[in-house]
Amino acid sequence: MTAAVALLDANVLYPAPLRDLLLQLSFVGLFQARWTALINDEWKRNLLAKRPDLADRIDRTQAVMARAIPDALVTGFESLIPDLSLPDPDDRHVLAAAITTEADVIVTFNLKDFPATALAAYGIEALHPDAFLQSFIAESPRPVLTSVADCLSRLTQPPVAKAEYLQLLRRLGLESTAAFLDTHLDYSLP
Known about the structure:
The protein folds into two domains: 5-133, 5'-nuclease (Rossmann fold); 140-184, no CATH class. The protein is built from ten helices and four strands. The chain has a four-stranded parallel β-sheet with strand order 2-1-3-4, with helices on both faces. By secondary structure, the protein is an alpha/beta fold. Helix content is 54%, strand content 7%. The mean pLDDT is 93. It is globular, with a radius of gyration of 16 Å.
């Protein structure tokens, strides 16, 4: 069975804990992550606006993303943009990339910008990242738990305790995911 293809919107790549978790889940094969140079530019630009001190780290992060998921970058979608209609015209590039890469889902916090009526003709749905993560928790809880443990193990500068990590996820609106992890993630973790 082929793993679903998910186009990751800039707003789910922006927060480091969510970006790391999504990439880890893709790396272990639960889904095929996709994004574009425009999406990369958007999350990086927004992060640099708040944290200009992270400029060097952001470039390294993008390089790590490219090495970890080498087939993630979607190209050749630009010609579709003018013919697409979405509530926010600035999001048409996301849908165009999803169509080009034959994505099953667009993972985004901005569901209102990707109404089902606009996506149905392409066989694509938009999912909030919490709902997207819940689909893996329902089908493959063990790889999700292992992936979260791997993400936590990389947070060493400074170390992040499990409770703090779960609070980060809750602040991002990942309530259901955090609730599952709170009851199932090994308490022997930091």
